[in-house]
Amino acid sequence: MTKSLSFLIATVVLWSCALGAFAYADDDGSAPSITVPLLVEIDGVKLTVADYERKHPGGFFQAKNIFYQSERRLVDNFVEEYLLERQAKKENVTVAELLERHVNSTIAKDPPEDALRVYYEGVDTKEPYEKVRGQIVDHIREVRIAKAKAEYLKSLGSQAKVTVLFGQPRAQIELKDTPVRGLPDAGVVVVEYADYECPYCQRAQLALDQIEAEYKGKVAFAYKDMPLPNHAYAQKAAEAAHCAGVQGKYWEYHDLLFKTKALDIPQLKDHARGLQLDTNAFDKCLDSGAQAEVVKAQFTEGMSLGLQGTPGFFINGRFFSGVLTHDQIHAVIEDERAMSAARGKETAKAEGR
């Protein structure tokens, strides 16, 4: 067993002991009861995970997700190592010989001299070209080998059935007082933490529009505000959407903000007029900051869950950071729907249906 795998198993055990809930069978052999693990004892007072989470909702999710990402990287590397060793055995060569045959030998010749000089012009160095030429060639070769190896590993993976047997942690996202588009009891709920001024959120919205049209009536969507401090208009834009929500037009206003990208105060008020809202009530709501605490609460919630920027997505509680493409969102939704269908079959089987 490799050192990295031994470390992984030991860490999983320690983590489970630290944060998992433990089940003990009752004395009469009935269904096990759940004992919430202790965290610390102070002057005889025992504090549990539940005590912590009441004061810091989502706090443990951030730690669990960081651990999951590290764990997943280790396992992914282990899978690649296994696939390479298995293929090398099939071809009766060493792993190094396998990579030479299928990766290194496929790399194109080094770039011509004029191309290397163009590359050199973009390098931040005061060294003469002749002195760094070799380093440039080595770097280009390393990049090409890395890409070729990734493609080769992808081809090996496509020929194998790889099932990761541990799940991604899921956050419990509170949707009370949060606008939801679609059926609230949909099997898949996509929650986005975003900022109306964020250009990456603008890009993500294009993919979300496609997904919403594709899964109409099958997936629910929720939007939570995380206006970043470096975006001067984001806070008031978020408040304005909630002011429109008071009059029943949150999503219409939300869509208009992403469509127009017009976010200063006069423009926010013009949007309300365009949607035929009660403009006096809207202006009073916006000017008074009546919805500021709602926005602040959602921002704080996002921070507690470990978001460091926007956009951030929770799909049935599974966290994804940054801009997701249509295909990426589609894949996760289909994965969730497949798991839901499998659970339904298991339940029906258990109930004899």
Task: Report on the architecture of this protein.
- By secondary structure, this protein is of the alpha+beta class.
- It is 57% helix and 11% strand.
- It is built from 13 helices and nine strands.
- The chain has helices at residues 3-19, 49-55, 59-90, 95-102, 113-121, 129-158, 199-214, 234-246, 250-260, 265-274, 279-288, 292-304, 326-350, and strands at residues 22-24, 33-35, 38-42, 45-48, 180-181, 188-194, 219-225, 312-315, 318-321.
- The chain has a five-stranded mixed β-sheet. A two-stranded antiparallel sheet has the order 1-2. It has a two-stranded antiparallel ribbon with strand order 3-4.
- Strand 3 (38-42) and strand 4 form a beta hairpin.
- The radius of gyration is 26 Å and the shape is globular.
Task: Give the helix/strand layout.
Layout: H1 3-19, E1 22-24, E2 33-35, E3 38-42, E4 45-48, H2 49-55, H3 59-90, H4 95-102, H5 113-121, H6 129-158, E5 180-181, E6 188-194, H7 199-214, E7 219-225, H8 234-246, H9 250-260, H10 265-274, H11 279-288, H12 292-304, E8 312-315, E9 318-321, H13 326-350
Parallel strand pairs: 6-7
Antiparallel strand pairs: 1-2, 3-4, 5-7, 6-8, 8-9
Helix pairs in contact: 1-3, 5-6, 8-9, 8-10
